[in-house]
Amino acid sequence: MVHITIDGKEIQVPEGTTVLRAAEQADIHIPTLCDHPALTPFGGCRLCLVDVKGARTLQTSCTLPATDNMVVTTDNERIREARKFVLTLLFSERNHFCPYCQVSGGDCELQNAAYEQDMTHWPLQPNWNKYDLDASHEYFILEQDRCILCRRCVRACGELIGNFTLGVEERGADSSIVADLGVPLGESTCISCGACVQVCPTGALIDKKSAYLGHEVQLDKTESICIGCSLGCGIDIYSRDNRLVRIEGNWDASVNHGVLCKVGRYLPHEAENWDRIYTPMVRKDGKLKAATWEDAINAVADQLKQSSRTAAMASTRLPAESLYLFKQLFGDKLQADTVTSIEEGANTKLAAQLAADLGSPFEGSLSELEKADCVLVLGADLVEDHEVASFFIKRNVPHGTRVISAGCAENAIADIADVVLKPSGDNYDNLIQALSAALADKPVTALAKAAGVDEAAVKEAARILAAANFPAIVYGEALLKNASLNTLKALVELGHLSGAIGEQRNALVSVKGKANSMAAAQYGLEQAMEISDEQAVFIALGDDCPSQKLIKRLENVPFIAVQASYSSQLTAHANVVLPVTDWTEQEGSYLNLDGRLQTAVQPIAAPEGVLTNAAVLEKLAAALGYHLDAAGWKDELLKRVPVAIITE
Amino acid sequence: MNYRSMVLVSGDPRSMERGAREIYDQFQREINALELENEVSLAWMQDVGRSDAVPLAVVYPEATIYGPLKLEDVHTIVEEHLYKGRIAPGLQAPVRELSGHIAWISARQGTLPAEQRIILKRAGLIDPTSIEDYIADDGYQALANILANMQPKEVIDQIKASGLRGRGGAGFPTGLKWQFVASTPGEQKYVICNADESEPGTFKDRVLIEGDPHAIVEAMAIAAYAVGADEGYFYVRGEYLLAQKRLRLAIQQAEEMGLLGEDILGSGFNFKLHVHSGAGAYICGEETALIESLEGKRGEPRARPPYPTTNGLWGKPTLVNNVETLANIPPIMLNGADWYRGYGTEKSPGTKVCTILGNVNVTGLIEVPMGITLREIISIYGKGMAHGAHFKMAQTGGSSGSVIPSTLQDTPMDFESYQENGVSLGSGALLICDENNCALDLAIVLMNFFRKESCGKCNPCRIGTERAYQILKNIAEGVGTMQDLEDLKFLSKNLIELSNCGLGTTAGTPLENILQYFMPEVEAHIKLKVCPTGVCPMSGKKAYPKTKLVQLEQA
Question: Omega of the bond prior to B545 within 30 degrees of 0, cis?
């Protein structure tokens, strides 16, 4: 611990703490611009300068480590002069037209810093140089006139995401934020995660969709979770007048610590272009016609009563409470021939079986991935489907993290991998055993040959795994497709041999499917759906998009009932359509891929006439004469042995 | 023909009047008599600026000047010097007396009086591509002695005792820096030679590396041994292709001889050297920016603390020294700290390699003892101001130095005396300006350099140098105002105090010096709309801002 005095206050801080953070601890405010709590300090804006006793010049508090008996003054004549100088220069460097900027008036850190120093104008005439505007990107704009070269965006793109798209070109007064080697953002390697937009202190990086829709004080903020995939990243939903304005990453969320991907941040806005269903519909004389709730529900109930075969499928975007009701209605009560989720157990069934066999969870925690110095990815395309998990890997590669990619499909993780293994037939049995053999110094040749991979590559991969102190193993759908229980058992063994699974830690993780993939597994919704021609099919779609494959499979089904938020080929083809809330209009619980139970909080009121997924199921149950239990969803969730320990 | 020695006889008119022809013929006869005609070459030379000692003969490679010669002296010189290899006693040209507080050595070394060549001892006189040449002149002797007989701490103590100070511009005590690195705990340490010579007007490091690369290689090995490093890098300016080539060759030769690599000279000490090329950035001469560049990142100075001595290349303790500083190491280790203290002044011992440029009669590279004055350099080495003009100002130490007015011409050139007067020595470039140069124009040239080379990380420098340049340009066009001077003072003061690194700090210094010492001249541009020297364009049109503001039409 280090003793330091700031403005007369004596405090103790751990060694390595910067003076800025120490001041925060002591409730002393030091203005900053280029600093951000989630990024490494830069020390370029010179706004946080403080007076350190004995130092020849003012020091940047954001980079200065506190040392024992240091005496710091954060406010005096010289410092105030320096701050005004810095802000004057910044305003006069580029063309800051405050009246036209959407962050002006409270959301601009540069302007706020100037007001804080009691500045009303700046004395140096601006340059009037011409600076570019890049609006080529789909989701945001880079307006160079407003950039103060704080490098937050560059640091975020590199340190938080590991994509390194943004950089600085030229030097001195010609310095400029640039994408790749100087291409428009829309043509760059940018993956639209939006981290740069979230950290930009001025209006230089503007979110297209939400610009000018309100200052932060005018918006309602709801802390919730994203349900774009099984990670369940923490988000802040900004809404106004019951309309979604913007989604940002929650810096305090344990899963993602503030980063988001395109799916979580920008895709929800796509729904504005989709056709919303506001009223129940029943097919009469070959056409879907609007109906009352009563008529529609009865139409479904009647069909379910008389149908000899029934299949029921629920989207894993539905909250756990709804999935519980769904399971009770179609499983316990109606005892339908198929009661399953839209994933049909593809991502979870085998693993659940192994957990049941073992009698205990065998997978670990996603947070281990953040600290791993070697990651083995088997049969999972992290970039397409669970992109934030890929950030955890990509951003550590410059720090020495090694990556081994095993999979047949082209993917961005393979591009950065030290070793790429492509098992023939996308079958991983032999490959896993080959790796284990290499780790245990046993003969590898035959296994490598059977797996269809190069022996030297297997040995190299094993060598890298063995040398790692904190290895992690991630696996996904592609591996599970052609796997058996033995494959998973072999994988667990590989986990032990490599050190991914040990006494103190477990870093074996499967990415599973969509948001409530694991909850669906816990409720046993894992069957493969059987379709026949004399059947009634009920799809609790929610706000999900049905795949072309599913639509084709249901082509000849005589009766389809769908509860959905948006029109699709499926609803167009259905016999009864029941309108339900989308994810922003409902509240519910979600179990993420490593067992974390989280709540999605409702930010927006549902439209008139639209019911929640749970309400529809309860109505249907009532029409069929059943009573469903709503409260026991959590107990039921915890009944089966989960693949990963469930925490709250 | 490979001659081992060369005799040059002065053949200028004054020498000829005094019998140079006969002396030349006598040399030929004496050389032939001893059958040295295939080993010693004889030639005429013109004026060497020693009209007080003609007729004279210069013997190379020792560059000994004998004169004024009488016919009978020729025999002694040929027998003693060319045959027996000893300086012929009593025949050397007398050395001219200089400022009293400079120490002397015997004038065996140096071609010009008062030039005491420690660092440039071999440059230009040996074959830089031959390691044997270097070894023949006590090369690698220091390293061998250290590895066999000395502990790292003893090496550091000797460097500390010698009082050697950094020659890159900062003047930090070298021994102390070595001690910081040595005492920082860590398995892996690095030594870096900063050969990113980018100060305008400075080319001393280039001459050193191109002329005597092995000296620096040996110095790096000694430094590595002293601080506990096993790997070293030369960061050489990208434009110095020949220097890089010579260094690579020198390293290869040293490795082949077992003077680099594993288990050097059987001592168990390992040291591997690499040559890394810069790519055209002045800022990469700043040690932390250099390290960033070595690591493959944008060359921008880091926030300090921590300093490279504890947290340098790849986060490990790193020693960064300038080429010239390192060139002093083998001589100090060979001859001792006391010997070194015999040169220069008490607080700034040793010599300094300076480049004289500008409006003097003779420009070039010289090695002089610390403490010599500017006036002496101009008169002795520069041979006085060109065209009889008067000294007006000098820019010392490249752009990062100071502007010296004529009042400081007699100040001894050592770190202390200059600092006391608020100016700095910098890297040793001396740009001499006379009454035909405009002080404002000099400020513009310097500020232009800084704004182009600024890395762009911190805004006082990135924006401040640009704005200062624009204001100065406006003044040079004759549209400056007194408010501009206030703005300039405001900019330069804050540049010096708030910048992230030395570039910004020293960008403000020359401007401050010029405003301090040449205010009447600058004011003439503003108040009288006149450039006293006629250099500035004074067109009456604003140079900045460049963009024309759109004029809206009146409704």
Answer: yes
